[in-house]
Amino acid sequence: MPLDKEKIKQVAKLARISVDEGKANNLSKDLNSIFKFIEQLNELDTEKVEPLTSILNQSLRSRNDEISDGKIREKILKNSPNKNEEFFVVPKVVE
Amino acid sequence: MDGITNQGLKEIIDNIKSKKISSLELTKAYIKNIESAKKLNSFVTTTFEQALENAKNFDSKPNYEQILPGIPLAVKDLFCTENVKTTAGSNILHNFIPTYESTVTKNLWNNGAFLLGKLNCDEFAMGSSNETSFFGNVINPVGDKLVPGGSSGGSSSALAADLTPATIGTDTGGSIRQPASFTGTVGLKPTYGLCSRWGIVAFASSLDQAGPMTKTVTDCAIMLEAMSGYDEKDSTSINKKKEPYSKNLNENIKGLKIGIPKEYRVDNMPKEIDELWNKGKKILKDLGAQLIDISLPHTKYALPTYYIVAPAEASSNLARYDGVRYGYRSEKGKDLIEMYENTRSEGFGDEVKRRILIGTYVLSSGYYDAYYLKAQKVRQLIKKDFDDNFSKVDAILTPSTPSSAFKIGEKTNDPVSMYLNDIFTVPVNLAGLPALSLPAGTDKQGYPLGLQLIGKTLDEQKILNIGYAFEKNCGFKNQIQKWWL
Is residue A17 part of a domain? Predict the structure, then answer.
């Protein structure tokens, strides 16, 4: 099985989610049963198939590079759990 | 005005227009219903004061030309609503108050409707039973031990219980159609790109699509008219002229070709689903449609494909929840990284974490080709199955779900058995097509069952027409006893 406890912890680290021993064990069980289900796809030969990257028959539009809004600092900061005047506050990152 | 809330949206609009009822009377009737239905847990937030104010404003200066004149509506709590808390059913957004309005809800308000409240849903729309919500599970009005389906479970529950005249949900893998099927209501997942995704809390961006949930097909056409439309703020929005779906409804389906895909008869499918499907075929045939056996050979690979593509996109979309700019922040942790890790660990529920981890894994270095690229290739094959058949048929008829509503707690310990609920709905999302779930009958316990009509890209009118004809000839009537009163 690809996803043992150690692998789970490594992936959780990449996803920035803390996972303790007990949780890692449960996740390993759940995820392995999900991956067993997912791996049915290996029955299919897709060697010559182009990957589908968009279901729309249109390509993404481009627009002129113009400022359309701005000066909404207050709105942007409004929902922050911790702010100081004009800034978001986070735990200290530089010693 | 007793009984007004039992009616469909169309009748209510007619009553408003003919001044048989005022918007204020209507709004008060719904508020009364909502207050006596707290057991269903279908609402996360109510906005009664604001709704009453809006109703009074409408009555003092009514505009009957609008599509939704003076109509109060509750919406899934995945749509951002300006100055009204929007949670996505998650602890990590439990205190989030958007400073902007989603395009789809803004379209509803611009057409005369106003907000009645925000409806419970699975956390970040990840679930098929509304049991993953941080705000508790929702009850199906059909029975007090039954799930209402998911992820738009608050929407289906509130609609079936007469707590809103119509509503909107989002559908990434079946989240409108499966709950509609479980509650005896109508649900439409439009073509990808028909309704703007701007301002909807993102789950899987290449699959997410908003759509109406209503009591009748006519109501569904009215809601789609009001909510859809081109939006330059959504880069995948389709730029096309708006269609008057409800005015164009036409019950003459003579000569239409209806595909019946053999792959939708799955192992262990209850006999009742098969019988329901046969009933649906007979109704359409009697109306002059031609049934054609077709094959969609990659159907069984749709769910495994979905469980790579959707988590991959979710892991990327949900990276934004970092406890810095909005939402929940953990107080634990000695540095920035630990703050992120604890915030996300405490803020997300188990199902969301599972999917973020699946997504992170399938996109990680060394596994990308084996999983994500493989899934994109199979997605191509699934889309091609539909493309090949739509040169021969006008629409496809299938069951909506492999069972009726199940009991609360029945599937929570086995993620894969929960995922299998969406076996008939997921292929449509992968191919970007429109699909309509129609109430069609009940099982032996009396629980509703639905049939699904799948259409070609942007062929909403045709599946609405077929649904309209079907509804008139099916004779289904939702028999909900209001046991919560």
Answer: yes
Contacting residues of B for A49, CB less than 8 Å apart: 377-378, 380-381
Whether omega before B196 lies within 30 degrees of 0, making that bond cis, reads no
All residue ranges of chain B with pLDDT < 70 are: 1-2
Q: How far is CA B138 from CA B31, B91, B353, B445, in A?
A: 18, 16, 21, 20
What residues of B are in contact with residue A50 (Cβ under 8 Å)? 377, 380
Segments in chain A below pLDDT 50: none
Pairing verdict, β B114-119 and B290-294: unpaired
Reply yes or no on whether B175 is catalytic: yes
Q: Tell me which residue in B235, B335, B358 faces A34 most closely, judged by beta carbons.
A: B358
Could you list the beta-strand ranges (E) of B262-394: 290-294
Q: Report the CATH number that the domain containing residue A18 is assigned in CATH.
A: 1.10.20
Determine whether B295 is an active site residue.
no
Enumerate the domain spans of chain B.
Answer: 1-485
Q: Is A71 exposed, middle or buried (0-12, 13-18, 19+ CB in 10 A)?
A: exposed
CA B173/CA B162 separation, integer angstroms:
26
Instruction: Print the domain residue range for A26.
Output: 5-43
- What ipTM score was computed for the predicted complex, to two decimals? 0.95
CA distances from B222 to B8, B171, B180, B237, B472 (A): 11, 19, 17, 20, 17
Please say whether the structural domain B1-485 has been given the CATH code 3.10.20.90: no
In a domain, A63, yes or no: no
Q: Would A93 be classed as within a structural domain?
A: no
A85 in contact with chain B, both atoms CB, cutoff 8 A: no
Number of domains in chain A: 1
